[in-house]
């Protein structure tokens, strides 16, 4: 095994031991996947698409009680900032361990045409 592969394996093992952090390189990949959504207009806020990208990386947006987010986005011009958790950290109370170095951010603006402009990223 090469030293680069060994280093990557060590990083992955550390992530498994401490699921409370999101590595910068993964954060960058998520944002790269989310970025195209901010470059077009939407008939509705594309929550399902956003959640699918988060799930691709084993993440879930959380409510204040650290359970899976299931809320409403209200207002024609607003934003939300949510905590994130790893899907595999769900406990018997349906709560997740919060990732301490990342959050999910979504802003939206409803234009006079009725379409939405969004900004979405993991910070």
> Element order, helices and strands?
HHHEEEE
Could you tell me how far the N terminus lies from the C terminus, measured between alpha carbons in angstroms?
A: 34 Å
Number of helices: 3
Q: Which structural category fits the helices and strands?
A: alpha+beta
Number of strands: 4
What is the average of the pLDDT values?
92
**Which bin fits the share of residues in helices?**
25-40%
Shape: globular
Q: Tell me the count of domains.
A: 1
User: Biggest sheet, strands in spatial order?
Assistant: 1-2-3-4
Strand content: 25-35%
Calculate Rg over CA atoms: 16 Å
Q: Unreliable runs, pLDDT <50, ≥5 residues?
A: none
Main sheet: strands, sense, barrel: 4 strands, antiparallel
Question: TL;DR of this structure?
Answer:
With 123 residues, this protein is of the alpha+beta class.
Structure description:
This protein has about 120 residues and is an alpha+beta fold. The chain has one domain (about 20-120). Helices cover about 30% and strands about 30% of the residues. It has helices at about 5-15, 25-35, 45-55, and strands spanning about 60, 75-85, 100-110, 115-120. The chain has a 4-stranded antiparallel sheet with strand order 1-2-3-4. A hairpin with a 5-residue loop joins strand 3 (about 100-110) and strand 4. The radius of gyration is 16 Å and the shape is globular. The N and C termini lie far apart (about 35 Å). The model has no long low-confidence stretch (mean pLDDT about 90).
């Amino acid at each position: 095994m090469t030293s680069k592969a060994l280093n990557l394996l060590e990083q992955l093992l550390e992530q498994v031991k401490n699921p409370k952090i999101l590595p910068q390189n993964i954060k960058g990949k998520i944002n790269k996947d989310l970025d195209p959504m901010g470059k077009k207009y939407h008939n509705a806020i594309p929550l399902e698409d956003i959640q699918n990208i988060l799930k691709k990386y084993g993440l879930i947006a959380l409510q204040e009680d650290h359970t899976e987010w299931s809320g409403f986005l209200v207002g024609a011009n607003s934003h939300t900032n949510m905590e994130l958790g790893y899907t595999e950290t769900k406990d018997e109370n349906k709560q997740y361990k919060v990732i301490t170095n990342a959050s999910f951010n979504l802003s939206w603006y409803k234009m006079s045409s009725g379409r939405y402009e969004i900004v979405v990223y993991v910070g």
